[in-house]
Specification:
CATH architecture of the largest domain in chain A: 3-Layer(aba) Sandwich
Strand content of chain A: 15-25%
Number of domains of chain B: 1
Structural class of chain B: mainly alpha
CATH architecture of chain B: Orthogonal Bundle
Shape of chain A: globular
Helix content of chain A: 25-40%
Number of domains of chain A: 2
CATH class of chain B: Mainly Alpha
Oligomer: heterodimer
Number of helices of chain A: 12
Largest sheet of chain A: 8 strands, mixed
Number of strands of chain B: 0
Radius of gyration of chain B: 22 Å
Distance between the termini of chain B: 29 Å
């Protein structure tokens, strides 16, 4: 393709096993003198070249999971309280700030939700794309500029050469998100964490950006964690899905499997609350109640208070994530069925 | 990491800040007048050795205390030295002392303000307490104390004036830093693994540059005024150096008979301060709405 694609061939892409393995991750926040987990016992593997979607409503811990992987949990209010994040044989939770900084933006990158505010308003777009290159790769300004231009062309910015020295306010939301993608991909990361990258965009632009991400993911041989609350987007882009509720993964399966047999009651209710064009539904279902507050989690199943299938044993102890052939569910009622 | 690139960003930010200021300029006639007058003074100062009709130290004993005439346009002083020539050369001292002091204060103060605002917490609290103490002294009093302790010399004068100006720069840089560090693009910088130093220099500094430059213009006026005041009370440049404040003072003794001795240097001080304030005020008015609205 272009120089960018050739230059950064991932050195470690041949080692077997998942590129990223999150093991019983717990990220806690201090509130009122006590630590409360916002992410609890989250485990998943991200295979090479795979796209894993993290789905859930606002505040379910999906963004905090991504920030934990990046080592960007806001201190001192928050901390990783337990678990491991294995990336290329290293436990990211054990690395010091300096080592983590070298990984961020280079081998693991992140795209944020808000393209309108995620670019520095007083620096040119070209410079901002080039910056990671000379920071992490020690390129000269000219080399980095040439490669940045190449990246802008790859993310399909029209007349990229002419727009190289433009400022972010001269770009539309969709174009800015393309620039953000170019920045995130500059150093050819092995893992891309995309935190609702299309949520702030118009629907038509969303589809374009999703297609672009999927295309670049393949071209770059990346693995991706895609965070969204939109199940339609999941179907379009992901290989596997992890559904999160109140800081826990409640169900994890391949996209096909999850859409065919949503097993956890929460997943099932989520599916039913999607507007469908192919069916005539008079009224969309909603899920009764609210997510429990971080400081007032039920002792048993966290979804129990809102669950239509609630049984006494649900509230006794937290249910384990169990299942077989890659389809795991955190529900004692359904798992036993 | 490439040093060239690290320097490139503030430069581009600087370019952007200047562009902002130019846009502000185009809608503001007083800024243009202020800038024009100031640049004219700078030009006269630079060209002083060439355009001054006499040597500023040359004494014409026969022509002592002569009023303005065709030979001595602004008259002569008690030693028969040409006032115009002394004014032109004096402008060099005023501008050099004022600008060196202001630029030093600008650099040190902005650095303190940005670091303090970025780090936050107790460090910020402590630093700002110190700045508040510094600010509680009027700049003239502060300058007076320092020069009185260290003794009058050009270096001490610059040091004294710079020290009084650090706190305002620290404050003007800190306030927007606190706002900017919470914006998404700073989080994006962290996600790219940039160091705190890089975030402050490359990403925050260009965002606060416009405000710092505006304050710099206003403080240049203040610095020149403080220098003139200190020279007036004898704590500034020593005679026979032609400092404007010193010239006003020398003329003061004969003000009833030969008013021009004081009047012309006073007018010069007035003119430059007026010009810089017009410039600074115009710029501030123009930059302010942008500060409130963001980009």
């Amino acid at each position: 393709m272009t120089t960018a694609v050739k230059a950064g061939a991932a050195s470690t892409s041949d080692t077997p096993g998942p590129i990223l393995r999150v093991e019983s991750l717990t990220t806690s926040f201090r509130s009122g003198g006590a630590w409360h987990p916002a992410v609890r016992d989250v485990s998943f593997d991200l295979a090479r070249h795979e796209t894993l979607a993290l789905v859930g409503e606002s505040g379910c811990g999906k963004s905090m999971t991504a920030l934990s992987i990046m080592g960007l949990v806001p201190k001192p209010a928050g901390r990783i309280a337990g678990g491991h994040i294995w990336f290329e044989g290293e436990d990211l939770t054990q690395l010091d700030d300096e080592a983590m900084r070298r990984i961020r933006g280079d081998r693991i990158s992140m795209i944020f939700q808000e393209p309108m505010t995620s670019l520095n308003p007083v620096l040119t777009v070209g410079f901002q794309v080039a910056e990671a290159l000379f920071y992490h790769r020690g390129m000269s300004g000219r080399e980095a500029d040439r490669m940045a231009l190449d990246l802008l062309e790859q993310v399909k910015i029209p007349s990229a050469r002419r727009r190289f020295a433009d400022y972010p306010h001269q770009f539309s939301g969709g174009m800015r998100q393309r620039v953000m993608i170019a920045i995130a991909l500059a150093c050819r990361p092995q893992v891309l964490l995309a935190d609702e990258p299309t949520t702030a965009l118009d629907v038509t632009i969303q589809a374009e950006v999703l297609a672009l991400l999927a295309e670049l993911k393949t071209a770059y041989g990346m693995s991706m964690v895609f965070i969204t609350h939109n199940l339609g987007v999941v179907a379009a882009i992901a290989d596997r899905v992890a559904v999160m509720y109140a800081g826990e993964i409640v169900e994890i399966a391949t996209v096909r499997e999850l859409f065919r047999r949503p097993t956890h009651p929460y997943t099932e209710l989520l599916m039913r609350s999607i507007p469908r064009v192919d069916r005539n539904i008079a009224e969309l279902e909603t899920i009764q109640g609210q997510v429990p507050s971080i400081s007032a989690m039920p002792p048993g199943c966290r979804f129990a208070p809102r669950c239509p299938l609630r049984e006494p044993r649900c509230e006794a102890a937290p249910p384990p994530l169990a299942g077989r052939s890659g389809h795991h569910v955190r529900c004692v009622v359904r798992a036993g069925a | 990491m490439s040093r060239g690139a690290a320097i490139a960003a503030p430069r581009r930010g600087f370019v952007h800040a200047l562009r902002e200021l130019r846009r502000a300029f185009n809608t503001n006639i007083t800024s243009w007048i202020g800038l024009g007058v100031f640049l004219a003074i700078v030009l006269f100062a630079v060209l002083a050795p060439v355009i001054a009709p006499f040597d500023p130290y040359e004494q014409h004993i026969i022509d002592r205390l002569k009023g303005p005439d065709a030979t001595y346009w602004f008259g002569t002083d008690a030693f028969g030295r040409d006032i115009l020539s002394r004014l032109l050369h004096g402008a060099r001292y005023s501008l050099v002392i004022g600008s060196v002091a202001t630029v030093s204060a600008m650099i040190i103060g902005s650095a303190i303000g940005i670091v303090s605002g970025y780090v936050g917490g107790r460090v910020d609290l402590a630093v700002m307490q110190v700045m508040d103490v510094l600010m509680s002294f009027p700049s003239l009093i502060m300058g007076l104390m320092i020069v009185a302790v260290l003794g009058p010399s050009m270096g001490n004068l610059i040091f004294a004036i710079a020290l009084t100006a650090i706190a305002p720069f620290a404050r003007i840089a800190r306030a927007p830093t606190i706002v900017i560090k919470q914006r998404d693009f700073i989080e994006a910088c962290r996600a790219l693994g940039f160091s705190d130093l890089r975030i402050m220099v490359v990403h925050i500094l260009p965002n606060v540059m416009a405000e710092i430059l505006v304050l710099g213009t206003l403080w240049l006026a203040t610095s020149i005024r403080v220098e003139a005041s200190l020279s007036f009370i004898g704590l500034g440049l020593k005679p026979p150096i032609p400092s404007w404040g010193g010239m006003v003072r020398e003329g003061f003794e004969v003000i009833l008979d030969s008013a021009w001795l004081s009047i012309f240097p006073s007018l010069a001080i007035l003119l430059i301060i007026f010009a810089l304030n017009m410039l600074g005020d115009g710029l501030r008015d123009a930059v302010d709405p942008k500060l409130r609205g963001g980009e």
